[in-house]
Amino acid sequence: MDSEITINGIRLTIVETYEEMCRLAADMLLERIRVNPAMNLLLPTGSTPLGLYGILTKEYSGALGQATFFNMDEYCASLKGQIALIPETHPAGYRNYMQENLFGRVLPKATHFPGIENVQEEGYYDRLIEDSGGIDLCLNAMGEDGHTFGFNPPGTSFSSRTRLVKVNEGTRGVNKNITGMTTPEYAITVGLLTGMESKEILFLVSGKRKADILRKVMLAQEPTPLIPATILREHHQCHWIVDEKAAVNLK
């Protein structure tokens, strides 16, 4: 059974399991799609949304055909001193990940990834999003160090836009442990402000390994770039959905 708690003015919905978290998020997303089938969605990769993507592809694939998907990030490599996106077929690549786990099964109207243009011109992707009408709904998660909206590590400015970043060693290590693959050293990622400009956010936190950082996010005296996910406390329409394992330190 779902329960709700409020900490520092933020209401969290706590569900018992990861599966229930994904089901609730999928139901909320589909409610919005029924009202606005042509909505723009900003989506993450990583392990947290996989269960949700599974529900969408198995049960609701036909509902997403008019939607436009914007992905948060993609890995890059430095080749002879030049930065380039890794190939679309690279097993660690996010274009490959999203094609296999979502896009190739629901066949949306359009899909976009931040491109290499953002190396020379920060925010290029943001303008594409703005020209497309902005993000109606963002699905979001966070890492064990509090990074969120893609690769925005501790210390990232709250005004950051889409740009090239060097992926920190902690995140690379966690990702390698999860995937078994070496994580590329660089990425193009949306910024914290990019994500916060979404009209609505579903923020998912799951698992015991996120319990410590969730507690820090909720109990911080005020939002701080030292814990990037604290910025979500400032969003007027962010829904916090947390499973019991992640919420264990909040009780």
Give a brief rundown of this model.
This protein is an alpha/beta fold. It has helices at 18-35, 50-59, 94-106, 117-120, 124-131, 169-179, 192-196, 211-219, and strands spanning 3-7, 10-15, 40-43, 68-71, 73-79, 82-85, 110-112, 137-140, 163-166, 186-189, 201-205, 238-243.
The overall pLDDT, averaged over residues, is 93
Let me know the largest β-sheet.
Answer: 8 strands, mixed
What is the CATH topology?
A: Rossmann fold
Main-sheet strand order equals 1-2-12-11-8-3-4-7
Low-pLDDT runs: none
Determine the N-to-C terminus distance: 16 Å
Instruction: Give the helices and strands as they follow along the chain.
Output: EEHEHEEEHEHHEEHEHEHE
Structural class: alpha/beta
Number of helices: 8
Fraction in beta strands = 15-25%
Broad shape: globular
Which architecture does the CATH hierarchy give at level 2?
Answer: 3-Layer(aba) Sandwich
The CATH class label is Alpha Beta
Question: From the alpha-carbon coordinates, what is the Rg to the nearest angstrom?
Answer: 17 Å
Tally of domains: 1
List keywords for this structure.
251 residues, alpha/beta, Rossmann fold, eight-stranded mixed beta sheet, four-stranded antiparallel beta sheet, 8 helices
What does this structure look like?
There is one protein chain. This protein has 251 residues and is α/β, with parallel strands linked by helices. It has one domain (3-250): 3-Layer(aba) Sandwich (Rossmann fold), CATH 3.40.50. It has helices spanning 18-35, 50-59, 94-106, 117-120, 124-131, 169-179, 192-196, 211-219; strands spanning 3-7, 10-15, 40-43, 68-71, 73-79, 82-85, 110-112, 137-140, 163-166, 186-189, 201-205, 238-243. The strands form 2 sheets. An 8-stranded mixed beta sheet has the order 1-2-12-11-8-3-4-7, with helices on both faces. A 4-stranded antiparallel beta sheet has the order 6-5-10-9, with no helix packed on it. Strand 3, helix 2 (50-59) and strand 4 form a beta-alpha-beta unit. It is globular. The two termini are 16 Å apart. The mean pLDDT is 93.
